[in-house]
UniProtKB/TrEMBL annotation:
Domain of life the protein comes from: Bacteria
The protein's name in its UniProt record: Transporter
Keyword Disulfide bond on entry: no
Transmembrane segments: 7-24, 36-54, 60-82, 94-116, 122-145, 165-187, 199-218, 230-251, 257-275, 287-305
Keywords: Membrane, Transmembrane, Transmembrane helix, Transport
C-alpha cells in the first residue's frame, strides 16, 4: 500500500509539472538547467545513500547483460518490423528511425526516482547495473549501428561512445558505489547525511522534470502511423520482462526490479541522435512523450501486481 501511495504521489507531481508547462508558469528554458541539477547533483546523492552498505554478489552481473541484450533485441525487432515496409513505401529512413526510437530506456531521470524506495537496495543496484549495459547503446551504440556515416569510421564511432560514457555522471556514481561495495567501505556519517539531505529532493525534481518535458501538443497525422512501433516496443518489453522474471537464475528482488525497469520509457538520447541523423526528430519527440505516459501507467500497474 505504501508503494502504491508513493507511485500516486509521483504521478501527481508529474501532473503538476504538466500544468506548470501548459499555463506558462515555469519557463521552458529552465528545463535544461533543472535536468543538469538532477543528473549531476540530486541523483548521484540519492544513489550513494540508497546503496550505502549494499553487498555485492555474482547475481548482479546479470542485470548488466540484460540491459545490453534488451537493447539489441529491440533493435532487431525494429528492423524486422520496418524493413519490408520501408522498401514498399520507398522510405529507407524508416529503418534507422525505428532503431533509434524503439530501443533504449530512460533510467536516470525516470526509472530510478520512480522505483527508489519501492525496490530493495539490491534491486536498485541491479537497476544501476542494467543502466550500465543500457548506456553502452543509448549513448551512441545504437546510432553507430543504425546510421551509416561514411565520414566516420568505427574507431571514431567507438571513441564517440566512449567519450559519452565517460561524461555520464550516473556511470561515475555507479563505479564509485560499486568500488565502495567491493572494498566493503562505508562513507563517514557526515557525508552520508549531506547526500541524504540533497538526495531527498531527487524524486520530486525528477518527476516534476518529466511533467515539464512531456509535450502533449502532438501532430497526430505524423504520429498515427508510428503507433504500431510504440505498441510493439511494449509488447517486446513485456516478453523480455516475462523471460527475466520466470527464467533468470537470480534472486526474486532482482527479477522484480528488472521487470519494472523494462517498462521504462524511451530515452531522451533517442531524440538527440534522431536529430543528429537528420531524421524526423519532432515525431521522435512525440513518441518519447507518449512513451512516458504509457510507462507511468504500466509501471504503476506492475508495482501493484508485484
Amino acid at each position: 500500500m505504501n508503494a502504491l501511495a508513493d507511485v500516486l504521489a509521483y504521478v501527481a507531481v508529474i501532473v503538476i509539472g504538466q500544468i506548470l508547462r501548459l499555463n506558462g508558469t515555469f519557463p521552458r528554458d529552465a528545463v535544461r538547467p533543472m535536468n543538469m541539477l538532477v543528473l549531476y547533483v540530486t541523483l548521484p546523492c540519492s544513489v550513494i545513500v540508497f546503496l550505502s552498505g549494499v553487498k555485492l554478489s555474482s547475481d548482479l552481473l546479470i542485470p548488466f547483460f540484460v540491459g545490453l541484450l534488451s537493447n539489441w533485441a529491440l533493435i532487431a525487432l525494429a528492423v524486422l518490423l520496418t524493413r519490408r515496409e520501408a522498401e514498399r513505401r520507398g522510405e529507407p529512413n524508416l529503418v534507422p528511425f525505428s532503431m533509434l526510437n524503439l530501443s533504449g530506456y530512460n533510467i536516470g531521470t525516470f526509472a530510478m526516482p520512480f522505483t527508489m524506495g519501492i525496490v530493495s537496495p539490491v534491486g536498485f543496484l541491479s537497476i544501476c547495473l542494467f543502466d550500465v549495459g543500457n548506456a553502452v547503446m543509448v549513448t551512441g551504440g545504437t546510432y553507430a549501428i543504425a546510421v551509416r556515416d561514411e565520414k566516420a569510421g568505427w574507431r571514431e564511432r567507438l571513441r564517440s561512445i566512449g567519450m559519452r560514457l565517460l561524461s555520464s555522471s550516473c556511470l561515475w556514481t555507479y563505479a564509485f558505489v560499486l568500488a565502495l561495495a567491493f572494498m566493503e567501505v562505508v562513507l563517514p556519517r557526515p557525508i552520508l547525511h549531506f547526500c541524504e539531505v540533497v538526495g531527498k529532493a531527487n524524486p520530486f525534481l525528477a518527476m516534476l522534470l518529466i511533467g515539464l518535458s512531456v509535450n502533449l501538443r502532438i501532430d497526430w497525422a505524423k504520429f498515427r502511423p508510428l503507433v504500431k512501433l510504440l505498441v510493439w516496443r511494449y509488447v517486446g518489453n513485456a516478453a523480455l520482462a516475462a523471460l527475466a522474471f520466470f527464467f533468470l537464475p537470480v534472486a526474486e528482488e532482482i527479477r522484480k526490479a528488472l521487470v519494472l525497469v523494462l517498462m521504462a520509457p524511451m530515452p531522451a538520447m533517442g531524440v538527440i541522435f534522431t536529430m543528429k541523423a537528420k531524421l524526423d526528430w519532432e515525431t521522435a519527440a512525440n513518441l518519447n512523450s507518449v512513451s512516458v505516459i504509457v510507462s507511468v501507467l504500466l509501471m504503476t500497474a506492475t508495482i501493484v501486481f508485484l
